[in-house]
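Re: export button greyed out
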Amino acid sequence: MRRYLSVIAICVASAAAAVEPGEVLDDPALEARAREISQGLRCTVCQNESIDESSAPVARDLRLLVRERLVAGDSDAEVMDFIVARYGEFVLLRPSTEGANLLLWLLGPAALVLAVGGVLIGRRRGAAEAPLSAEEEAALAALLAEDGDTKNK
Amino acid sequence: MARLPWLGAPSWAISFLVIVELGHFALILAFALSLFQTVVPLWGAHRRMPGWMAAAEPAATLQFLLIGFSFAALTYAFVTSDFSLKIVADNSHTLKPMIYKVTGVWGNHEGSLLLWVLILALFGAMAAWWGGGLTDTLRARVLGVQGAVGAAFLAFLIFTSNPFLRLANPPLNGTDLNPLLQDPGLAFHPPFLYLGYVGLSLTFSFAVAALIEGRVDAAWARWVRPWALAAWVFLTIGIALGSWWAYYELGWGGFWFWDPVENASFMPWLLAVALLHSAIVVEKRESLKAWTILLAILAFGFCLIGAFIVRSGVLTSVHAFANDPERGVYLLAITAFFTGGALTLFAWRAPIMQGRGVFGVVSRESALVANNILLAVSCLVVFVGTIWPLVAELFLDRKLSVGPPFFNIAFTPFMVALAVILPVGSALPWKRAKLRRVVWKVRYVLALAVALGALVWAMQTGRSALGPIGAALGAWLVAGALKDLWERGGKKLSRLRTLPGADWGKAVAHSGLGITMFGVAGLIAWQVEDIRVAQIGETFTVERYEITLKDVREVQGPNYISTMAFLDVSRNGRFVETLTPERRIYPVAGMPTTEAAIRNGVGRDVYLVIGEPQANGGWAVRSFIKPFANWIWAGCIIMALGGAISLGDRRLRVAAGAKKATAGVPAE
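Workaround output, generated via the alternate export path:
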């Protein structure tokens, strides 16, 4: 418990000190790119915080590295590759689409397609079977009449 | 006064000492009683024995009283700083302000679990008190299942996380509560969240009871909906409080981090929204019965998974305050037992629940099905994104992270789609409709939304499309909701007042969603940030504001030392306010915190943070202009208000509906 608190203390409590004034690049366009990249890179010691938000020393080193590469003329993708080559894909807050990760990315859209398709097919099948028996119709009518707010659509 | 355990103390002082022991005893009694509350009513309902079934109600009430007493005893220990209790010594301090002594009761794993169990018992008791209209067997079964959930958590509490453990050698003072938790926003965040999570336990109990009973009808839905609605209202407020807290406390004005713990509260919220809407279809049209039952099971299932995520530490997160793998195993067992058991029961009994209502592809029912699909899929995306790092590590041998950039891309489209269909869907009539006619009805709303989006697009040159889209969606939702209300009131102002609360609640809640969506988009799109070193007396300009660093001083707080900066803020040369951001050190807990100073405004917040002193003089100062930040939480509160209005209406109708149900369906 104490150990976790101390991690929180480093990472969260003094987060205001994340990007220090001294780190900011003079070129605003380059600085904006650096911020954008920083927001996609994870601090290696904090939980679920980007290096842009983290005040841990490691995060500061990474921020400086990002800016160094940008000043040296790297493109955004080159900077990312450079960092990932050193720290592993763990630092990517936006996971790659390689290999099994494709499943992570496609699950939402796939589930949507399946659900909509399933409902439509189920509906068609249901419609074929659906006509209510006279008995059911009567029960339904009784229920609807009983339901005080049917007029309320 | 009760600090003297030796014999010379007057007898009244000793009697106070026993309060904690009595609280412990009450908790154990409550556990025994919860076993009784599970077995006797369920067996009684099975064998149709009225006496056994009737035992459920007093059992539920008594359980609530026992746990309530136990909670009061623990609160008493915190308030009187009884450091012979381990959790008081670990989480409190004599100098801590009184309010945080009280809220400190749930600022730790054991105490928060006791609060969880208390609320569980409260919902059980409320179901007993107001369950008069239910059939005897259904009521007995609901209370029985609720008792079983209670028993599982009470066992967990007593055997793995007992808050009443004494220390052999009590310290003279405590080690203080985590300073991050010493904050009004966060102090009341857990009770609201728990009211939400645990409220969903009752809808779960209703679902399981209905599966055992083998009957789901309009009356059942009418019974479940108010509970789902109440749980959702509390969950909304709880999440909003947490987000608001993060905004002002963490020091850079973020409001949502897609942190595992946040996701743990967000997934039940999404499913609760789906449940609210599908229960309407069951109530009005007797369709989607099996699906609604499934949602009720899953919504609580995700609460349990959330409890597991937060308390086990498998997915360590920024604000998991209690990590323990052993407890994790127990919680996983609870989750597996209740979710798995209920799903098995569902697979077995669901085919019995035939829907009745037939509906066309274009109808209110279909729109609500679309709502449910989008919400369920977005919940799935959040779930998979949350556990993916674990899956990758266990099965793929890859250490990777899934952070905000993933969720922003993978989750947001579903919410946008939901917002796009909402005003049309809610204007569709039941059973069968003509899409063209409904779209024609909302043509002005559509025009307004598009025009506003275009206007915003024109005003902000060369920035992201997020702002205009947010403005258009917000206008679409709010105007759509108002238009719908106007139509329902027969386009007469006088009739609006007499509309049922459900109609008002719907319009208000949907407007709230629009306001939140606009706030989120506006804040992200138009935030301005400035980081610099400022000397004392220096003035700098951020957007239209001139900010002067007047002074930085040491200030002594009740249990902390603060470095407080005084910054004068003016706008276009006119003085606005002196803001005082702080850096605090809590010596007992040994933790620093940042306290941002915020000038709240309807259109924008000015958000100032003081950083480190610099080697060559001056201070690091971060200034943010955060447009429309307050709209995010205002929207959440409006959503919750909509739910509350709807609930006000429900109460009357529930009573009426329940009476009919008992009259119409002879007791078995």
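The helical segments of chain A are 2-13, 28-39, 57-71, 76-87, 101-129, 134-146. The button fix ships in the next patch.
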